[in-house]
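Please fill in the sequence for the structure shown.

STRUCTURE ENCODING:
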């Protein structure tokens, strides 16, 4: 990104989150990177970080304009997520700040904007191609906003600003209290969760440390231009059945007792969402959860060829680490949306 001997100044948003904290660790050890962390609460940064900290809220337009000055690369790992409903919150807390950050980066002539997305954006039809357009899902407002961000990147890539979209698989590993595992584990204990499609679809699990490696490659790779999309998954994607069998043998979680096809699962999830209006707590299952179980067919082929990405962390090791951490820290089932 810079001439020989010069450091690349990289702004990292969401530096205290799952992806951001792993990216912080990896980028902070790169001798050719000068790292700037954009956070709301610097006290949550990993101990030992000595780089520049720019404190503020991405919902503040003045802050967004200020943080992209004097940087060559923006890595946008900041997020707010929801697996169900929360249309307005997703728009205000996730979509609008991301679009504003992209626009500010282009105005300031930032050389590269790197975004963290999901392989589910185009699943199950087109996810094998990381450059394919995402498919909006009316039943999952947050995923629709992810697709909007990808499209905004496509429309705003220029000769001066390269847009790099990393469609990551399902997050697993340390420092992650959200996602599929925290949703799945308490629901397995109810004995009400079925196999969906016989548990035959593959889950593209990926450790946070591997995502961080991909980010480092995306920062350093000079031969990128325009809009570039990459799938980022682990070295092996287990089937749903393999994952649940592993959870059963390692931690004693019950296996499902029956199976339903995807069509029936979507219908049942729709019913659970409707009943959510009168029942306390989150639904047992939502259509977004069923969607996450759809086959993506995502591989690292393009990321390996173009970026040199080589995932290192076995899914079983990552699941062990995350489940052990959840057992220590999680006192109640995970809500399907972050607190506002």
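FILLED IN BY: designer on duty
SEQUENCE:
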């Amino acid at each position: 990104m810079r001439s020989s001997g010069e450091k690349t100044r990289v702004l990292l948003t969401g530096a205290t989150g799952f992806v951001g904290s792993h990216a912080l660790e990896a980028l902070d050890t790169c001798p050719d990177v000068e790292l700037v962390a954009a956070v709301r609460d610097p006290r949550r940064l990993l101990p030992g970080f000595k780089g520049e900290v720019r404190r503020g809220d991405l919902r503040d337009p003045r802050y967004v304009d200020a943080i992209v000055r004097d940087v060559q690369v923006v890595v946008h790992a900041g997020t707010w997520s929801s697996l169900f409903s929360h249309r307005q919150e997703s728009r205000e807390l996730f979509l609008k700040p991301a679009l504003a950050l992209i626009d500010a980066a282009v105005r300031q002539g930032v050389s590269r904007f790197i975004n963290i997305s999901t392989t589910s954006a185009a699943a199950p039809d087109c996810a094998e191609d990381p450059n394919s357009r995402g498919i909006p899902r009316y039943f999952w407002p947050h995923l629709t906003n992810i697709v909007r961000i990808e499209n905004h990147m496509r429309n705003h890539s220029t000769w001066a600003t390269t847009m790099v979209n990393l469609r990551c698989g399902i997050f697993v590993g340390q420092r992650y209290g959200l996602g599929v595992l925290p949703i799945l584990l308490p629901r397995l204990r109810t004995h009400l969760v079925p196999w969906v499609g016989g548990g035959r679809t593959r889950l593209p699990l990926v450790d946070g440390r591997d995502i961080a490696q991909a980010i480092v490659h995306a920062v350093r790779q000079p031969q990128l231009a325009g809009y570039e999309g990459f799938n980022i998954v682990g070295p092996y994607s287990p089937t749903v059945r393999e994952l649940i069998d592993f959870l059963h043998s390692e931690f004693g979680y019950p296996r499902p007792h029956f199976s339903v096809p995807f069509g029936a699962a979507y219908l049942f999830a729709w019913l659970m969402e409707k009943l959510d209006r009168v029942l306390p707590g989150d639904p047992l299952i939502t259509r977004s959860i069923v969607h996450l179980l759809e086959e993506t067919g995502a591989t690292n082929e393009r990321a390996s060829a173009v970026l040199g990405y080589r995932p290192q962390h076995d899914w079983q090791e990552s699941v062990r680490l995350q489940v052990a951490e959840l057992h220590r820290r999680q006192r109640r089932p995970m809500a399907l949306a972050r607190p506002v």
